[in-house]
Amino acid sequence: MAQKRGFLFLLPMKLRRISDLQHEFSFLSSNENFDAYYARFLESDLGKIYISIPWSDLLRDLGIKESFKGAKMSYSPKDWLALMFLEHYCCQSDKRLVEQLNSNIDYQFFCDLHVGLDRITNYKIVSQIRCELGNKLKIDKLQQTLAYYWSPYLCSKSQITADATCYETGMRYPTDAKLLWEVVSWIYKEIKSICKTLG
Q: Domain residue spans in the chain?
């Protein structure tokens, strides 16, 4: 790495400006080089997750399947499920997830969708799918299926880790304002009790 006039220059430089490429760079070349793009996707972390998910068994456990009667659906049941996995992977809002899905070829491979020149504009589709799958969810059955497929890769099988937000609503995150209010409320009741006793 060399420093010149206060700027850092990386050697060797492999990056090029898009404006310098003129007609050499095609944003739609994924159609022409599908196999190469798909192979790169499978090598990524997201691709490894995609390979490790038993899609057909999860769909069977959820009891959903694609109807072949009438017009063909834009989204298959597998797309629905993939979108839910993707939302958890991305840790983003529904709107942000759809925006990323419109532009990220790896996300499209994961959900088995090709947006092309079109764009998904209905941001509510994610919450609609979540509600639809939530009504069919049988968590015990899904856990058994995932445990069966992933057991060779699990270590410390005698331990259980759970997200605290999944427990009773009586348990909540103790923010400073909530703790301060509870202290004030408790002290006020104690003062009233003491005053009543002492007259």
A: 32-153
**Least confident among 3-12, 80-89, 170-179:** 3-12
- Joined together, the tokens standing for residue 170 give 């009586």
pLDDT tens track for 159-168: 877 766 655 5
**Maximum Cα interatomic distance, the chain, rounded to a whole number of Å:** 90
Give the pairing of strands 2-4 and 7-9: antiparallel
pTM to 2 decimals? Answer: 0.58
Contacts of 46 (CB under 8 A, 6+ apart): 89, 106, 107, 110
